[in-house]
Amino acid sequence: MARFRLKSCITLIFLALLLLIVTLVLKALTPEDSPFDSSGEVKVSLNRQSASQNQRDFNKKPEETKMSNPAESDKDAELESTLRKFPPPNYYLHAFYYVWYGNPKFDGKYIHWDHPQLPHWDAKVAQEYPQGRHKPPDDIGANYYPSLGPYSSRDPSVLEAHMQQLRTAAIGVIAVSWYPPSTKDDNGEPVDEILPSLLEVAHKYHIKVAFHIEPYKGRDEINMFTNVKYIIEKYGEHPAFFKYRTNAGKLLPLFYVYDSYLMNSEQWAKLLKHTDSSSIRDTPYDAIFIALLVEEKHKREILTAGFDGLYTYFATNSFTYGSTQRNWVSIKAFCDDNDIIFIPSVGPGYIDTSVRPWNFKNTRNRINGKYYETSLSAALESRPDFISITSFNEWHEGTQIETAVPKTGQMVYLDYLPNKPTIYLEITRKWAATFSGERQRWQD
User: Fold this and answer.
1) What is the pLDDT of residue 56?
2) Straight-line distance from the first to the last Cα atom of the chain, in angstroms, rounded to the nearest whole number
3) Element (H, E) at 394
4) Contact 137, 127 (CB under 8 A)
């Protein structure tokens, strides 16, 4: 009997050892990330997909299965790390942005950097000043020299650098200068084809893009409808396309309309008034349309035309009624009384003598940033709906806040010394935070 119990114990010990060995072997054969646990339940991965979705991903070409690419994941992580270093974007702070620049590497020639020196309208005055085109890269049509050199707006690295500068400044929206396809300004080339790349890079940096519609040749209420329709159908669903929720709860695009006064209010009313049968209102292409205020009489004309708001654009204080900062409080009161939007435009200074050598009277010295801060202070005093900045990169008129560097050589350029190249981005960031705080206070 004792011998039997001994044999039984030895057998049990042997079976236990065998079971342990089998278990260890099976565990070694099972991946650590197996979806099965000891309870027999299926673990749900963070990337929730059905079996059919998994099959679709299996059938994709390698370049289509982006999430499985470790390099892409590293890039995304690097971008998120970069974005965390920037202040949050202020979507009530807009900057006018230009994509009309070109250079031989990307465009086969210099575009806009070789801007001509424009003659004065008085022939006698014109004779006193130089004429002809600038000759980049050392001689460009600007009084300052960009830190990126005479760049191309098609250069992906330039778009990246611009978005980083914009985020440094806490700017949330760029209003891109826009001409319809196959049309252009007097000194440039068509720009619409650049917009897809711009939108993609802007989205990457959480920046929104609005459209600043230029006075293209033959602009009228009919082709304005056509062109707004084109913009919304082509770009309106892009996540970087700027839309604003109105008090009525509608989520609508916002369009700045430069030199809107060139069309009379009766023409605009056909497009913008609900009463006209050809109106864009209550169609899929309805939007918020912002007119340019130049003269005081334009206030009533803008109202009669059916615009939703007005902006002042020019960075030269006292150049026009609209750009005169002491008028902004009363202009805002007019807008409030008539339930339209007021967007004053501020700028760091103004100098365009590289392209208009006779226009020195409109120069506004930057005073190491004091002019800009005074403009921003005046804008906030008016309690605006938005603030627009003239400009991020209008180099011909010297209104840029983009980084500039000292440049030596045959040509003489201004610079931001004794401050850093980023001084105007830093001033913008400071006032963006102040604007956010003030907006919150106004709403309380």
Assistant:
1) 32
2) 93
3) none
4) no
Distance CA 85, CA 386 (A): 25
93-124: pLDDT as tens digits? 999 999 999 999 999 999 999 999 999 999 99
The tokens of 74 are what? 């590293």
Q: What phi and psi, each to the nearest 5 degrees, are found at residue 81?
A: -65, -40
The predicted pLDDT at position 34 comes to 32
Q: Say whether 388 sits in a helix, a strand or coil.
A: strand
The residue type at 192: D
Greatest CA separation for the chain = 133
Q: How many CB atoms lie within 10 A of CB 427?
A: 19
The three-state secondary structure class of 177 is strand
pTM of the model: 0.83
Residue 276 pLDDT level (bands cut at 50, 70, 90) = confident
The pair of three-digit structure tokens given for residue 200, joined into one six-digit string: 């993609």
- Coil/strand/helix, residue 254: strand
Within a 10 A sphere around the Cβ of 60, how many other Cβ atoms? 11
pLDDT at 236 over 60: yes
Percentage of the chain with pLDDT > 70? 84
Averaged over 384-401, what is the pLDDT?
98
Confidence of residue 54 (pLDDT cuts 50, 70, 90): very low
Runs of H (alpha helix) within 32-69:
51-59
Quote the pLDDT of residue 20: 58
Tokens of 77: 């992580």
Tell me how far apart the alpha carbons of residues 135 and 240 are, in angstroms, rounded to a whole number.
36
* Residue-wise DSSP of 328-350: HHHHHHHHHHTT-EEE-EE-S-B
Cβ(169)–Cβ(428) under 8 Å? yes
Tokens of 114: 């070789």
How confident is the model at residue 180, as a pLDDT? 98
Q: How far is CA 69 from the centre of its chain?
A: 29
Alpha helices in 280-327 (DSSP H): 298-305
Tell me the Ramachandran region of residue 432: left when phi exceeds 0, alpha when psi lies from -120 to 50, beta otherwise.
alpha
Please say whether the beta carbons of 142 and 357 come within 8 A: no
Asked if 317 and 325 touch (Cβ cutoff 8 Å), the reply is yes
Nearest to 290 by CA among 375, 171, 379, 210: 210
Relative to beta strand 243-245, strand 288-292 is unpaired
